[in-house]
């Protein structure tokens, strides 16, 4: 049992809840009739096909493969040096796809207990792994507006920043999306930090953005890089309006008390996966943690 599992199970026991298997939520989500999950369940319909003329036409942006490699991005599944880490992400990808397809979920937020746990790098590499699966579109949004890292990790500059959309400096979300040349993957993010992110994320612009993606993308799975849950309340503003969360921690760095506190704060929301970065545990020689963690080569962002 990893430190993440132990902390979350202790949290559930203290709340009088029965611990569930790894990757499952410890409590039913809020039945807020205005939450994204409640709306999706109430309108449990198959989305209409997206006409080619209405699909998102992303800006093609160049990135430096060497810089991406230095930032530990897993751009190719054929790299034998990263075989163990790629296999770990494949396990996480399969688990997430199984849960999201079974539940009909389309939005997954990634958060951590504290900064520097490897959350943003996990989000980018998971998006790359999911895009290689090729059965659905993957959209990666950087909503960690106080410390935007997705574009920095990729070494790219957005044509239009997400904060411009939330601050209503642009009317449409069309110009937000970028492609780095990988099929099925769209990216939108920021390079400029903003201090009023909680207020921006609490606005109706978030629903507008998610609805726009669903209308203009074929069977999208939307990954959202969120701030650490123990920082200001940004993640708790977004969590009730998306379907599920992935919690990221770093072995030897994330205090057990922080993991337990994060578990308490997220107990009302479905946890679709747990990632333990820099895990010293090994499974089948691949060097990833039992909690769907990454190998010791995974970095911190």
Description:
With 301 residues, this protein is of the alpha/beta class. 35% of the residues lie in helices and 13% in strands. The chain is built from eleven helices and eight strands. It has a six-stranded parallel beta sheet. Strands 1-4 form a two-stranded parallel ribbon. Helix 11 links the parallel strand 7 and strand 8 (271-277). Helix 1 crosses helix 11 and helix 4 (83-103) packs across helix 5. The longest helix has 21 residues, at 83-103. The two termini are 25 Å apart.
The share of residues in extended strands comes to 5-15%
Mean pLDDT: 79
Strand order of the largest sheet: 5-3-6-2-7-8
Give me the count of strands.
8
Ranges where pLDDT stays below 50 over 5 or more residues in a row are 17-34, 41-46, 282-301
Order of helices and strands: HHEHHEHEHHEEHHEHEHE
The N- and C-terminal alpha carbons lie at a distance of 25 Å
How large is the radius of gyration?
18 Å
What coarse outline follows from CA principal-axis ratios? globular
Structure in a nutshell:
With 301 residues, the chain is of the alpha/beta class. 35% of the residues lie in helices and 13% in strands.
Q: Layout of SSEs?
A:
Elements: H1 3-14, H2 36-42, E1 59-60, H3 65-70, H4 83-103, E2 107-112, H5 119-133, E3 138-142, H6 150-154, H7 162-166, E4 178-179, E5 185-188, H8 197-202, H9 205-216, E6 221-225, H10 234-238, E7 244-250, H11 256-265, E8 271-277
Parallel strand pairs: 1-4, 2-6, 2-7, 3-5, 3-6, 7-8
Helix pairs in contact: 1-11, 4-5
């Amino acid at each position: 049992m990893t430190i993440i599992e132990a902390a979350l199970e202790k949290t559930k026991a203290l709340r009088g809840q029965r611990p569930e298997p790894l990757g499952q939520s410890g409590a039913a989500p809020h039945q807020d009739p205005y939450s994204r999950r409640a709306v999706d369940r109430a309108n449990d319909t198959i989305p209409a096909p997206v006409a080619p003329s209405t699909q998102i036409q992303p800006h093609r942006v160049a990135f430096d493969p060497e810089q991406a490699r230095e930032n530990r991005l897993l751009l190719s599944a054929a790299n034998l040096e990263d075989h163990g880490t790629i296999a770990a992400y494949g396990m996480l990808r399969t688990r997430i796809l199984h849960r999201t397809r079974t539940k009909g979920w389309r939005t997954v937020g990634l958060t951590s207990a504290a900064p520097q746990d490897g959350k943003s790098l996990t989000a980018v590499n998971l998006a790359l792994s999911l895009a290689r699966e090729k059965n659905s579109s993957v959209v990666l949004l950087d909503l960690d507006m106080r410390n935007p890292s997705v574009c920095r990790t990729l070494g790219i500059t957005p044509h239009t920043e997400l904060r411009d959309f939330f601050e209503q400096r642009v009317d449409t979300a069309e110009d937000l999306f970028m492609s780095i040349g990988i099929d099925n993957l769209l990216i939108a993010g920021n390079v400029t930090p903003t201090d009023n992110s909680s207020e921006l994320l609490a606005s109706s612009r978030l629903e507008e953005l998610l609805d726009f993606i669903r209308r203009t993308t074929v069977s999208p799975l939307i990954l959202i890089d969120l701030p650490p849950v123990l920082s200001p309340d940004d993640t708790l503003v977004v969590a009730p309006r998306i379907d599920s969360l992935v919690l990221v921690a770093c072995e030897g760095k994330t205090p057990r008390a922080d993991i337990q506190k994060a578990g308490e704060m997220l107990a009302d929301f479905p946890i679709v996966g747990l990632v333990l970065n820099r895990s010293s545990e090994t499974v089948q020689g691949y060097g990833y943690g039992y909690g769907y963690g990454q190998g010791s080569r995974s970095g911190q962002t």
